[in-house]
Amino acid sequence: MPGGTPIHALSGRIVPFVTKVLIDCDPGIDDALALALAAGSPSLEIVGITTVGGNVDLSMTTANALALREFLDLGDVPVTPGSAGALLPQTVRAAHVHGESGLGGAVLPAPVRDVSAGHAVDFIIDALKAAPGEITLIAVGPLTNIALAVRREPRIVEWARDLVIMGGSYTRGNHNPAAEFNMLADPEAAAIVFAAGWTVKQLGLDVTLSAVVTSAVLDRMRPLGRLSELLVPAAQFYGMVTAEGGPAIHDACAVAYVLDPSLFAAVPAVVNVETAGTYTRGMTVTDFKVADRRPNALVTTSLDVKRFWDLVLGAYEGLAARLG
Ligand code: RIB
Ligand code: CA
């Protein structure tokens, strides 16, 4: 995690610490709001966006990532498509939650530029190899691309500065009582990722369900110019916004964790992903009693909601000033 603001050795200038991030996603309404948070955060440098089939099919998650790159003024950040489906022949989608387009009620201008050549798995490996210890992987969709990258090049576990995921839960699921969507969409991939040897920073439903767009939050999104054309219809499609509650922007929590981990309390744990259970397939079985085992996850357990929204809305306001 960033360790404060370094002073430039020669000029003595304060050089803001910039964290390089590679975002693997399945846009997806909350993926879009996570990308907007990253786009509005000068302390993050997005080195790449990779896409995976998840909320909607890969063709649509990729089209949405391309449209978001241009809408959010992300310049030349490469968008590279990855796995269309899970490691095993199964398809779990969430178009009933995100809409057939994947972006709910938001309609963005069609993208002009296309994807980068190649496959997301190779992009992830090549990016991490070229900058060992520098890039934080943020995965906010099914973990198929990350698992395939680990299998193809196990050293990415050492090369990645960190791995931060939105996924799982140590209490209950959302797609069914046991499993959270990203884990259920590819349990074998999740099992490979949690067993790969890194310490997964896990933003599960236990904290992300607190990141709720209430009417007070939505009111702060409305005056944000062009950006509000994404934020407001997307959030309103994602759930019923009221004074007390609303849709949770799960994926933005993963980006927020990279920006400021102090927003969260977190506990080391040993996490195993159920792949065989009739009723529990995709469940992240979380053991906080680590004993003499090496924890493979740092599991977030609470969120400072007020500070979260101050961070997120501050980033959105800064981005809106840029977008007009
Ligand atoms: O369970 C929430 C997760 O599933 C989020 O990443 C959302 O985008 C969906 O992919
Ligand atoms: Ca997602």
Report the mean per-residue pLDDT as an integer.
95
Q: Termini, distance in Å?
A: 32 Å
Helix-residue proportion: 25-40%
Q: Can you tell me the CATH architecture?
A: Alpha-Beta Complex
Ligands and ions found: alpha-D-ribofuranose, calcium ion
Q: Which structural class fits the helix and strand makeup?
A: alpha/beta
**Low-pLDDT segments, ≥5 res:** none
Biggest pleated sheet: 9 strands, mixed
Fill in the CATH topology.
Inosine-uridine Nucleoside N-ribohydrolase, Chain A
Report the top-level CATH class. Alpha Beta
The fourth-level CATH homologous superfamily is: Ribonucleoside hydrolase-like
Order of helices and strands: EHEHEHHEHHEHHEHHHHEEEH
* Strand runs, count: 9
Question: Strand arrangement, largest sheet?
Answer: 3-2-1-4-5-6-9-7-8
User: What's the alpha carbon Rg, rounded to whole Å?
Assistant: 18 Å
Compute the number of structural domains: 1
Describe the protein's architecture and organization.
The chain is an alpha/beta fold. The protein has a single domain (19-323), classed as Inosine-uridine Nucleoside N-ribohydrolase, Chain A (Alpha-Beta Complex), CATH 3.90.245. It is built from 13 helices and nine strands. Strands 3-2-1-4-5-6-9-7-8 form a nine-stranded mixed beta sheet, sandwiched between helices. β2 (44-51), α2 (58-71) and β3 form a beta-alpha-beta unit. α1 packs antiparallel against α11 (225-238), α1 crosses α13 and α4 crosses α5 (144-152). The model has no long low-confidence stretch (mean pLDDT 95). It binds alpha-D-ribofuranose and calcium ion. The site of calcium ion has 10 residues, from α1. Residues 26, 28, 30-31, 54-55, 94, 140-141, 166, 174, 180-182, 250-251 line the site of alpha-D-ribofuranose.
